[in-house]
């Protein structure tokens, strides 16, 4: 684990506001210790000084970068800022990843935000440790949305353990989301990314959508895997090395732009069909950057774009 010093606590996040996720963001580091192989964050923050200071590549694995002083800056901004609203905790890292847990960053940031009126929080994590803070969340239950990223079903838990080596198993994440609902906490679904060969088939999508709705999800966000950076290659290689040749081949195919477009277009329809089957289309938020789609793909999608959040320029 490396530490760094960030400059911000609570900051506006126009891109996540366009996604319908939050108006503001809090991040407690620049490299998450969950080490998900498909992660595209390295491509987004590769110029940050923390990587140079630590002498590491933003695309390497096996390390994390965190700022232990983040809650103090968050507390300062929470009391200082006049314009208030929904904050996502976090957008580029995970406030309950192992290194964040070591400093209690998730709970400390939550406490700092919720101590001031006018703020609400959208939690997004891949770690079951968030349940340790349900006592705090319950005291502010109307102001907190709990989300655990679900990237597949329990049937693919072995494959996902290869791809997301330090995240909690999918079955544990699902148990925590179910527990949150049982406690009367607000929840939402985050199905991102739904990888080809792992979670893009109709049966898996239906199972995930049904589960999120059974947990009282107010919204369900979904997204294809981001092809930016070396993530897809790393996922393909790791799956192949672990003996999951079929899944590795499926991931490898979408490294080609035209096949990624076909996967994305198919995934949209699969998500829409699943939401329709549960009479929950109004809750779908499919996050779509159309830059890698051909005009023919775009025409087909626009003919039936229920639930799509069109992003990018």
Structure in words:
The protein is α/β, with parallel strands linked by helices. It has two domains: about 1-120, no CATH class; about 125-313, pyruvate-formate lyase- activating enzyme, CATH 3.80.30. About 40% of the residues lie in helices and about 15% in strands. The protein has helices at about 15-20, 40-45, 50-55, 70-80, 100, 105-115, 135-140, 155-165, 170-180, 200-215, 230-240, 245-255, 255-275, 295-305; strands at about 1-5, 10, 25, 30, 65, 85-90, 120-125, 145-150, 185-190, 215-220, 285-290, 310. The strands form two sheets. The protein has a nine-stranded mixed beta sheet. The relative contact order is 0.11. The model has no long low-confidence stretch (mean pLDDT about 95).
């Amino acid at each position: 684990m490396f530490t760094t010093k960030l400059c911000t606590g609570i900051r506006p996040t126009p891109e996540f506001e366009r996604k319908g996720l939050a108006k503001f963001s809090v991040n407690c580091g620049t490299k998450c210790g969950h080490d998900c192989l498909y992660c595209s964050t390295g491509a987004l923050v590769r110029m940050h000084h923390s990587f140079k200071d630590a002498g590491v590549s933003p695309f390497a694995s096996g390390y994390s970068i965190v700022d232990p002083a983040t809650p103090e800056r968050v507390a300062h901004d929470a009391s200082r800022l006049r314009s208030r609203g929904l904050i996502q905790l976090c957008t580029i890292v995970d406030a309950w990843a192992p290194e964040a847990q070591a400093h209690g960053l998730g709970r400390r940031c939550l406490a700092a935000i919720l101590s001031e009126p006018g703020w609400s929080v959208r939690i997004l994590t891949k770690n079951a440790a968030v349940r340790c803070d349900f006592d705090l969340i319950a005291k502010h239950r109307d102001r907190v949305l709990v989300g655990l990223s679900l990237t597949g079903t329990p049937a693919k838990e072995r494959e996902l353990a290869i791809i997301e080596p330090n995240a909690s198993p999918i079955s544990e994440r699902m148990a925590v989301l179910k527990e949150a609902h049982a406690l009367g906490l607000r929840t939402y679904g985050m199905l991102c990314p739904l990888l080809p060969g792992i979670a893009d088939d109709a049966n898996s999508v239906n199972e995930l959508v049904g589960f999120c709705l059974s947990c009282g999800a107010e919204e369900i966000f979904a997204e294809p895997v981001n092809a930016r950076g070396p993530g897809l290659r790393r996922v393909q290689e790791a799956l192949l090395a672990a003996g999951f040749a079929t899944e590795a081949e499926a991931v490898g195919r979408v490294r080609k732009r035209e096949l990624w477009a076909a996967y994305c277009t198919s995934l949209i329809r699969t998500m829409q069909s699943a939401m329709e089957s549960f009479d929950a289309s109004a809750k779908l938020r499919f996050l779509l950057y159309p830059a890698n789609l051909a005009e023919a793909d775009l025409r087909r999608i626009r003919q039936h774009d229920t639930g799509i959040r069109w992003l990018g320029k």
